[in-house]
Structure formats: C-alpha cells, structure tokens
Amino acid sequence: MTTPQLILSIIYFILSLALIAVVMLQSGKSAGLSGAIAGGADTFLSKNKAKSADARLARMTKWVAIVFMVLTLVLCLLPGASA
Fold it and tell me: Is the model's pTM score more than 0.85?
C-alpha cells in the first residue's frame, strides 16, 4: 500500500464514522408526528430551532455522503488498489 492510499484510507475511515454519527443524530420521521399528536408543549421558537437543527443535519448528511461516494470511487480507481 502506497502512502497516498494509506492517507486516503485513513480519511475514508474517519469519513465513514462521521457519516454514521450524522445519520444517528437525526431525529426520525415519526418523532414529528408524535410531537404533533401529543400536544403543544413546544413553543414557536423551539419548534423552529429543532427544524433548523434537523435541516442542518440533513444537509450535512448529503454532503458527507457525496464526499464518501467520491472517495470510494477514487480509492477503487487508484492503481494497485485491491478490491
């Protein structure tokens, strides 16, 4: 394994852990429905805050997944890479 492959593999490993973490931090789709049925305990500001955090996590998930897929292709196309 060459040095660039080793560096890219380490980045790939860290990126995979980041992707897992970002996906696990997101709230499920059913959480919004149960909150709506349970009642209006949340204020207007806390609802907007939760939506913005969920939107930020969703956007992070998309970008981390795109970088993960591109890095997967790069690692597979490197000469001497074992599948």
Answer: no
